Amino acid sequence: MSEEIGQKVFQQVMDIWINPEIKQRKKEGTIKDGTIISKMQIIFSLDDGNKVRLNEEVKAIATGKTNKSINKGDVVYDTDIDTLEKIELTDEDLNCGHITLLLFKNNWIISFDSRYNRERVKAHIEASKEFYESAKDNLVKNRLRPFFENAFASAELSAMSVLLTLPSKEILECRNHKKRLSQFKNWADLGNVKMEFSTTLSRLRELRDSARYPHSDKFKEEDPNKIKNIIKEMIDFAENSIK
Question: How many domains is the chain built from?
């Protein structure tokens, strides 16, 4: 981030969130005139709403380079650190996005991550992997009916993993297969994921009845190895989306 852009971001954060919060706290008497603010954090949560934290309220894990040996449990001071490289949320806020600002060596360090639901995304990815492994095993044993059932489950969970990073309560609470497919297609239409991910997911949903019930052999017309490879790519994409 350039210095010019960084200054604009800092000013926007101050104008939109921090200054109104300080003004409100002064009005309530919970903060005094002249209080030095050296840490600021805005937490974006779909569960509890947005929160502003100041000074000792800020919760974060900072990664940086020290200029001396540090043992576990040692108190670390600004003078012990040369650079800050990364600021992440603690386990308490894993499903939240954030903007965190720390005053470090007379300069403001700004960290921003707009991705939501990291813990939920991880759970979805793990579930997707399990269905994917079952699908692979079924394919090796030429059990195509359960292959397509597990393939759809894996693809849908991977798609949800991507969508859950967005600031949408509607996506978070959605339990309808058709609506999930529509949300993922819209995201693909915008160029955010490969269109092949969306078309494969939609096709797998269409094939579920054919594979599950003996009234149609349409599922036998598909290339299961191609589908398997696309699902693996979807899982990898979902994992990379939260790194």
Answer: 2
